[in-house]
Amino acid sequence: MNHADIEGMTNSRMTNDECQSAESPVYDLEERTAAFAETVIDFVLEIDRGPVTSPLISQLVRSATSVGANYCEADDAESKKDFRHKIGLCRKEARETKYWFRMVVRAMPETKKAARSLWKEANELHLIFSKIRCSCDKA
Predict the structure, then answer these.
(1) Which of 12, 42, 59, 109 is most buried per CB count within 10 Å?
(2) Is 4 inside a domain boundary?
(3) For residue 84, what pLDDT is reported?
(4) Is residue 124 included in any domain, yes or no?
(5) Region Disordered: which residues (predicted)?
């Protein structure tokens, strides 16, 4: 199931698709973080639960879904300081997600291929939020 399958659960704000020309790249970070979280959920639904994997899965889902939730909060920040803080949380959660992917792969080596692409996305999100945070520090 993708985000389009869930009617009425997305923001009514204009998306970057509607704002940009056909030649412009789309940078919808809210959508990207939500899609990432959904993909992580799909990934963990395929993993057998056990005494080692259950807590790892819980932590992975918490951190991966928290990236987007914190970005939504940052998007509605009450001040520059609040925005900077919430972007910092996004960065920390993306980094933590990379850690939990490493632990899941250690516990279940057969997940390595699927986890690798998700780890790369978590890394890209971490770098994006790091850059945003650095830009905030310079402003």
Answers:
(1) 59
(2) no
(3) 95
(4) yes
(5) 1-24
Nearest 5°: CA angle at 137, between 133 and 138? 120
Count of structural domains, the chain = 1
Show the tokens assigned to 23. Answer: 């030649």
- pLDDT given for residue 139 in this prediction: 65
How far is residue 94 from each of residues 124, 126, 131, 132, 135, measured CA to CA in Å? 9, 5, 13, 14, 18
| Owning domain of residue 69 | 29-138
- Return the pLDDT at 8: 44
Q: Are 3 and 39 in contact (CB under 8 A)?
A: no
- pLDDT at position 17 is 45
Buried b (16+ CB within 10 A) or exposed e, 46-63: ebeeeeebeebbebbbeb
CATH code of the domain covering residue 114 = 1.20.1440.60
